[in-house]
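Example 4.3 (complexes with small molecules)
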Amino acid sequence: MNNSSLLFGVMSGTSLDGIDIVLINQNNKTINIIDFIQIPYNENTKKEFLALHTGQHSDLEHSIRLSLFHAKITANGIKKILKKNKLQTKDIKCIGYHGQTIRHYPKNGYSIQLGNANLLAELTNITVVSDFRNRDIVAGGQGAPLVPAFHNEYFFKKNKNRVIINIGGISNITYLPVNKKITGFDCGPGNILLDHWIKIHHNKNFDHIGRWAKSGKLIEALLLKLQKDSFFKKIPPKSTGRELFNIDWLNKFYVKNYPPEDIQRTLLELTVVTINNAIKIFCSSVDEIYICGGGSKNKFLIERLEEITGRNIDTTDKLNIPSQQVEAIAFAWLAKKCIQKKYNNSPTITGASGPRILGTIHYS
Ligand SMILES: Nc1ncnc2c1ncn2[C@@H]1O[C@H](COP(=O)(O)OP(=O)(O)O)[C@@H](O)[C@H]1O
Ligand SMILES: [Mg+2]
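Answer. The structure with magnesium ion bound is encoded below.
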């Protein structure tokens, strides 16, 4: 049966670096990437989203305005891709629109992603699927991570126990063992604290290839203290975000008392050891490790991860999905399932009480 469809996937991750838009042609197990663009947030937009992350800033009007703005710039990006590829809206089955997370509180029963799906449908005249996390949460799940199901579909190999690590703002792991059930959960901070620290000290958005971290000395005693946070000890299902790993969390450890480059080095090590611990504890037998997300560009981080795991680590590019595009593609895939009325959550990973169809449909 020809199940081929053109799909857009739109992802804005916790790093607040911007909006990733991918256009794919998906036919069952085959994905062809047609185009991909990244729309970076400017300083002001980033600040506005950041302000809404904390409980003190619950301005409803402000969040609605940002939602509309997010949809507008997404629509412009989509139109640009359509034009460039000489495609029309009627050629597209749907847009999987994740939106920008500003709160993730599964314990309290909700997760908030900004991005006005009605406006995006209106501006593009394409069906939009949004709000992927909340149905899973009200069914008792974490609503995250949602990408392991996609990893399972496209990265599973019959004779290899594979581990997929996504290092975005937060890092998450998917274990795809040959004979056992898949596991997936958030490991802890990925780039979020590293980005934050270099912004304060050097006014840069991120530590290019981990150069600044590499120049610092690891503070072992501090690393041990950071690792004591109860999140790291929690048994999955578990997920996290900026609600926990933020500047207030960091300041509790008196980080200002140390040379800033040593803190950067130690934060990088925290990302590395928490991923390694997740592998050691939850991935009983590992043949291959692949990495995706912006953290895969942090050369020093990958070097340390290779040293600590004792393995060669490739990016998912080697599995034919570019490391920067995995999440956006995953949301295109999740959206298609929603439209087809197929279950697209992973109860064994998120802890939801059963299979559900995630996503709200806004018809073209
Ligand atoms: N060349 C690079 N060197 C180091 N880190 C990088 C590089 N490119 C991207 N990153 C990191 O990746 C992050 C973006 O990753 P991404 O996967 O988009 O995360 P998210 O899904 O949370 O938005 C940036 O904030 C930055 O920390
Ligand atoms: Mg991003």
